[in-house]
What we know:
The structure holds two protein chains of two kinds. Chain A is mainly β.
Amino acid sequence: xxxxxxxxxxxxxxxxxxxxxxxxxxxxxxxxxxxxxxxxxxxxxxxxxxxxxxxxxxxxxxxxxxxxxxxxxxxxxxxxxxxxxxxxxxxxxxxxxxxxxxxxxxxxxxxxxxxxxxxxxxxxxxxxxxxxxxxxxxxxxxx
Amino acid sequence: xxxxxxxxxxxxxxxxxxxxxxxxxxxxxxxxxxxxxxxxxxxxxxxxxxxxxxxxxxxxxxxxxxxxxxxxxxxxxxxxxxxxxxxxxxxxxxxxxxxxxxxxxxxxxxxxxxxxxxxxxxxxxxxxxxxxxxxxxxxxxxxxxxxxxxxxxxxxxxxxxxxxxxxxxxxxxxxxxxxxxxxxxxxxxxxxxxxxx
Lengths: 143, 197
């Protein structure tokens, strides 16, 4: 009796510990055209269909020397751009990056971004494996 | 309480309300004081145009203008604001001549005439890009009460914190209102409509 109870207890414990993993899906990635040495900004939607949260820790692309996750803050009418650090992606939720907020900044572009260009952007997460998304450069009035 | 007493109390209240109203009316600053405060923002300036030649603000006279202080290495807020302005101008439906959109760099170190010229072309509609010496830019910032400050970034680069609002100037060069990024598009469009009529 005691043995069967402890086996049952182990099963219960195992069930509690087993969390559904995060399931990341990237979509609607776009950037605006750039000129000269100016950096670019990529916006995209990160959806977590899984049962546990994950954290966005970094971004990479062959198109630029550095890709950084940035956040705009508005304080007393002053726009401030800062590194965002890690971004939490809650379970069963989504993060939609929109102009004026969080974006992936591309510093040191190998060539300016032109309307119609496509390039790969890789996002790194704390738990999930790297995810690649195709970024499209959109015309100013199509954004 | 008798009717008479109630009537007395009510009339007393009416009297107090009237007195308060008069007091508020007297204390409100006169229109001339308000005008003076508005007139202290902006004023004539000379900077350098995208063609490398001096650009006098008198060239903006005769047409309302929306003036924005930003920098070309700004990947988000600046293009968002300029794209918003060109979109609002399209929504006005009075053509590109209805309002001049002016972009003044707060980063003259990196933004010469060539940089502001190519940046201004990104929006698919006429945008006047202006630069100048550090001293000239500082003077114009002061005239408009605009703020900017360099902030070091990792990797040896820098970003610039800056005023996010747009300054609306009437066709006589007088400051009228600001457009803030937070206000809705309807309010922004209404402000622009008032500016062009």
